Amino acid sequence: MSERFTGSFTQQEPIPQAGIDAAMRVLQSGRLHRYNVAAGEHGETALLEQEFAAMVDAKYCLAVASGGYAMATALRAVGVKAGDKVLSNAFTLAPVPGAIAAVGGVPVFVGVTRDLTIDLDDLAAKADQASVLLLSHMRGHMCDMDRLMAICGAAGIKVIEDCAHTMGAKWGDTHSGRHGVMGCYSCQTYKHVNSGEGGLLVSDDDELMARAIMLSGSYMLFERHLAGPPKEAYAQIKYETPNISGRMDHLRAAILRPQLADLETQVQRWNDRYRAVEQGLADTPGLTVIKRHAKESYVGSSIQFLLEGWNGEAVNAAIARCAARGVELKWFGGAEPVAFTSRYDSWRYAPSEAMPGTDEILRGIVDMRLPLTFSESDCAQVARIIRAEVSAVYQAS
Ligand SMILES: *Cc1c(COP(=O)(O)O)cnc(C)c1O
After folding, report:
1. Which of 14, 100, 200, 384, by CA, is between 20 and 30 Å from 313?
2. Is the minimum distance from the CB of 200 to ligand 1 under 6 angstroms?
């Protein structure tokens, strides 16, 4: 009998006890709305913002309802209006083009490389088409950020970073989310901290953050923010900015604060698991492991590999054989979107010119989640199964 894996790819760890205790205190207080605080109390949400800003060396932070809301708010704050073009990744997740569509923007998709990062040659070629780039560090892969910032700087492009998969990651000494004018993070269950839903937005810019705080629905209570700009920043903005409610509440913030305090440890644990799978897959015939840049310190909460040049039938066969042995892989390159969408031609509301080189890479991308409920030996087992099944299909074809 060949071995079979029995873990669940969607099972995260429980919320730490400190988070459960803090959540109970919020529930007992009855004060769940972020601006509902007792005299002398700051509230969990404002404290979370302060702690996250300090963690990523940002001046300001705003906690919001979701990562998608954070991105749409950032786009609004930088002034994207209906009909404006916004550059973004051809390979990312649906909430990214969705955020552009939410503000009436028109995505201009930029291709992907074999390292699964944005194609900087393609970005340079399209740099004259828009003045904003919503850059997605999709699946935690960071491009050469020095070159990206040079291209965008020269073209006068404002960069907003989608860090849904890079909370806890760095390029050199700089935290992901701190290269652009605003950085957006998700606190959704499948990301690096888990409050079910939630998002964080960071910036050093007084005007952008004042706008974002007004947009999120702060009424005239912005002075209660501990990680917001001084009140002078709101002088005009408070009259001119619509309220598009998307605040985070104290309950979610209470759950998140102990998780943030633990993030560094969790990142290590993710990377131990990532390396166990990566090692187990090395030199598998027909399978390409994704290269990581020396300047990138990543968070291995999922792993990708390429089945380059494989036909769809063979990819499906390998995935089905792994599934039969308990290993859940996702084919990001599938032509028909199943359960999620991650490629530009799935988003038919935002038509794009064809990108044959990108299509070729997209066709080969396979993805697997690595929840922390897996042990390192689980990860080694999962890698053995993938290796065996991918090799079997490759050799037969
Ligand atoms: C999850 C995700 C987001 C944001 O997701 P929300 O569910 O809105 O918090 C943004 N970008 C990518 C690449 C994601 O995977």
Report:
1. 384
2. no
